[in-house]
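Tokens for chain A. Residues wanted.
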């Protein structure tokens, strides 16, 4: 792998400042999605080891919360610095286990590190309030306190940023954390733990466990010492976790799947719309919850948009993420490839037309051709399900009312994008779209400083921004008799 610092490649779990294996000695392999080869093996921890990790986090909580916010920020800033110092190595590990192009992986390291810096700076601003009292002999104030021990479950598509987006906010607030990264991409999370260790973050404050998701998830949702569970992943698993967490009435934050519309009105600048489309669709090979899933294009610009988009898609370079000039890597596993094949076949059988791509790439394995397909209708699975791959599915519409109806005709509500030069329409659309984030004449919205999250079946809770810190804080009301 050619790491400058090979000791970043950790293949044991990080609990209470120690690197541990499963009691049984069992492990699970980590597979390179570009080659199908085994990269490493990580422990298959079960319920007992997870309980130990929760106890470690619970034991560390009292001392961590009592540190001043400034002190906690100091640890976070050291962690942030170490991540940036090791950006290239982290990017290589990330590309190896996730498959994304190295340039994107470098970008994710930077983006992920930013959450740590941001929350280090926010930690010192967790202000309470004084509230004008309705009584002359009493005074009312609120204070903010950490939620407690938090559990985090993260997906494989952003193996670094999804960990830091949760952990940085939790640690800044004074919480301690146990993270379960996705089985496909645990090495990035373990490398982050190695750097947290070097940053001096005390034992038990940050813990990483790997292993069978259901066993670990059960402990996270049932254990009385866990105050909050933050999950990023599929809607189906989010629903299960919420149901299980109900038994212990935990706070739950769910960042779930999406089905983002990308709407192009006839008055849009076609060049800008096409560039936005490429960014919104093909980043991480389309394996992003905020990826444009349905292109809704007004009749008057349909031909121009399709021609230019087809040209840009044809120029995308598919290959292993570590190769120079690659813009689209492999899909994460063969199940993802098979799912896309099924969605495309069903759409074509119902009348959709493939303009470009539409099949497995000649490189074989998990590689799929960047695809443009038109004539997609709301009755097709391609319209209704999260594609999670490099497939741009286009539906034509006639007017604004139809665009809104189509855009909102989904259970999901994470992101939406639209292109128009009409200011009044921009406001109308922004207000009418049922989702948590809207890109207006831009194809990318994620940033540390803005609230990330969704509505409807895309979940609830916000990450990043000052709202992200609130998610890990309780408000306590104090009433003083004077
Ligand atoms: P997934 O199957 O739900 O997996 C996500 C995480 O949940 C993984 O760590 C997985 O562990 C774990 N998990 C799976 N089953 C579980 C169970 N029964 N109990 C506890 N944990 C369980 O999702 P995915 O298909 O890998 O990830 C892609 C999904 O994430 C997409 O729907 C995408 O839209 C969504 N996502 C949302 C956001 C957002 O912020 N809204 C961001 C990124 C991704 P294993 O890997 O060990 O199975």
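Reply:
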């Amino acid at each position: 792998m050619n790491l400058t610092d090979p000791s970043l490649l950790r293949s044991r779990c990080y609990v209470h400042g120690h690197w541990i294996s499963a009691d049984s000695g069992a492990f699970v392999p980590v597979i390179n999605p570009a080659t199908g080869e085994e990269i490493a093996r990580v422990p298959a921890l079960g319920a007992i080891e997870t309980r130990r990790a929760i106890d470690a986090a619970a034991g560390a909580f009292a001392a961590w919360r009592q540190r001043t916010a400034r002190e906690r920020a100091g640890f976070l800033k050291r962690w942030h610095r170490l991540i940036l110092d090791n950006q290239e190595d982290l990017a290589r590990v990330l590309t190896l286990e996730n498959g994304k192009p190295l340039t994107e992986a470098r970008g994710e390291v930077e983006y992920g590190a930013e959450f740590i810096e941001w929350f280090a700076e926010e930690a010192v601003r967790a202000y309470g309030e004084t509230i004008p009292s309705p009584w002359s002999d009493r005074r009312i104030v609120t204070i903010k306190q950490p939620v407690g021990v938090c559990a985090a479950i993260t997906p494989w598509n952003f193996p670094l940023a999804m960990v830091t987006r949760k952990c940085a906010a939790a640690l800044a607030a004074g919480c301690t954390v146990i993270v379960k990264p996705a089985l496909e991409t645990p090495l990035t999370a373990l490398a982050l733990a190695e750097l947290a260790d070097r940053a001096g973050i005390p034992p038990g404050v940050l813990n990483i466990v790997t292993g069978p998701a259901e066993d670990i998830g059960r402990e996270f949702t049932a254990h009385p010492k866990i105050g909050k569970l933050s999950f990023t992943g599929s809607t189906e698993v989010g629903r299960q976790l919420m149901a299980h967490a109900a038994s212990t009435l935990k706070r739950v934050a769910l960042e779930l799947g999406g089905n983002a519309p990308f709407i192009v009105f006839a008055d849009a600048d076609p060049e800008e719309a096409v560039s936005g489309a490429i960014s919104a669709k093909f980043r991480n090979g389309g394996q992003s919850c905020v990826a444009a899933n349905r292109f809704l294009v007004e009749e008057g610009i349909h031909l121009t948009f399709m021609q230019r988009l087809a040209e840009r898609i044809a120029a995308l370079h598919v290959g292993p993420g570590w190769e120079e000039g690659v813009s689209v890597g492999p899909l994460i596993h063969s199940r993802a490839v098979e799912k896309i094949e099924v969605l495309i076949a069903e759409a074509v059988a119902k009348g959709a037309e493939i303009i470009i791509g539409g099949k497995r790439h000649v490189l074989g394995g998990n590689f799929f051709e960047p695809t443009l397909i038109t004539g997609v209708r709301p009755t097709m699975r391609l319209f209704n399900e999260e594609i999670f791959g490099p497939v741009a599915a286009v539906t034509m519409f006639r007017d604004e009312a139809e665009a809104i109806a189509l855009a909102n005709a989904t259970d999901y509500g994470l992101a939406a994008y639209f292109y128009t030069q009409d200011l009044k329409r921009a406001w109308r659309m922004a207000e009418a779209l049922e989702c948590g984030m809207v890109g207006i004449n831009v194809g990318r919205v994620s940033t540390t400083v803005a609230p990330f999250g969704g509505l409807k079946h895309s979940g609830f809770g916000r990450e990043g921004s000052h709202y992200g810190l609130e998610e890990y804080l309780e408000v306590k009301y104090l009433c003083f008799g004077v």
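The first strand starts at residue 13 and ends at 15. The chain has a mean pLDDT of 98.
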